[in-house]
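ARCHIVE CARD
CATEGORY: sequence design from structure
SOURCE FIELD: tokenized fold
FIELD CONTENT:
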């Protein structure tokens, strides 16, 4: 059996607050294994996982995949005690920063997103994001790469919320033309964006390169607005790149995004632009 991190889980990151929960799951797994009269070798053979992986899970240094907990629960007749932690472990698999971002996105009722270098993560196909993350330096290990891809894909549950949030994307022209991966990867990426743009709660716009005086040259902008009237935003160009919630700072981002949105192609024009870009590939 392949004992890769993708089969069972990933190591707990140092200092992560999820560590006590992972340790508790490990202790619970061991208790039920011993109660079932099974050795680690017995459980490993039954579940078709490596013994070392199971020992790491029991020690709380390895985050188990939800599928592993479901199988272990049934094999050891734990009556749902292990399955109870499937959702927690699903979230724990992702890096802390990604979990925090996913939580904010999950609570937002409106998201404003401007991308000037890459296609926004929420719009990326799995093969595009894998190709994109593979270009980063220093390079991710295979396990780290799969963890990052899985985390980005999990954030896409945002599109399945009911009621859905209002999503506004403005993408620089160059992000739609850079052949990340290869031409076919980019083609499928653009086709995916055309499909997403048809959703009633999504507005997708393209910022042409020939716009000389737009205020997006400072970098990405993202603003998330919540039902209680509060918001959080960030941009590469100001506030040290850190998330901000102060109304005065948010007004700066709102103003900047509003001008960018006004200078970009309309949603209809943007769909036509993407279709034409597809035709050139």
């Amino acid at each position: 059996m392949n004992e890769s991190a993708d089969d069972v889980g990933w190591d707990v990151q140092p200092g992560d607050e999820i560590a006590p929960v992972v340790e508790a799951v490990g202790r619970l797994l061991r208790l039920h294994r011993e109660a079932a009269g099974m050795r680690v070798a017995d459980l490993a053979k039954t579940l078709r996982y490596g013994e070392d992986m199971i020992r790491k899970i029991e020690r709380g240094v390895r985050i188990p995949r939800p599928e592993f907990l479901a199988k272990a629960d049934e094999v050891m007749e734990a009556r749902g005690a292990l399955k109870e932690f499937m959702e927690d472990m699903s979230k724990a698999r992702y890096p802390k920063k990604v979990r925090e971002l996913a939580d904010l996105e999950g609570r937002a009722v409106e998201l404003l997103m401007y991308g000037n270098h890459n296609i926004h993560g929420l719009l990326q196909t799995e093969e595009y994001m894998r190709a994109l993350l593979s270009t980063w330096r220093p390079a991710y290990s295979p396990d780290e790469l799969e963890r990052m891809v899985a985390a980005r894909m999990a954030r896409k549950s945002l599109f399945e919320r009911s009621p859905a949030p209002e999503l506004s994307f403005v993408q620089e022209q160059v992000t739609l033309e850079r052949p990340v991966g290869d031409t076919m990867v980019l083609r499928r990426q653009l086709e995916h964006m055309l499909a997403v743009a048809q959703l009633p709660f999504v507005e997708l716009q393209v910022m042409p390169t020939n716009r000389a005086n737009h205020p997006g040259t400072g970098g990405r902008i993202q603003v998330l607005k919540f039902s209680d009237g509060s918001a959080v935003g960030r941009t590469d160009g100001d506030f040290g790149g850190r998330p901000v919630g102060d109304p005065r700072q948010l007004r700066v981002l709102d103003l900047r995004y509003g001008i960018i949105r006004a200078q970009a192609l309309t949603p209809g024009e943007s769909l036509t632009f993407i279709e034409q870009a597809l035709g050139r590939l």
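CARD ANNOTATION: The chain is about 50% helix and 15% strand. Residues 5-92 form a domain with the 434 Repressor (Amino-terminal Domain) fold (CATH 1.10.260.40).
SHELF: design records, drawer C
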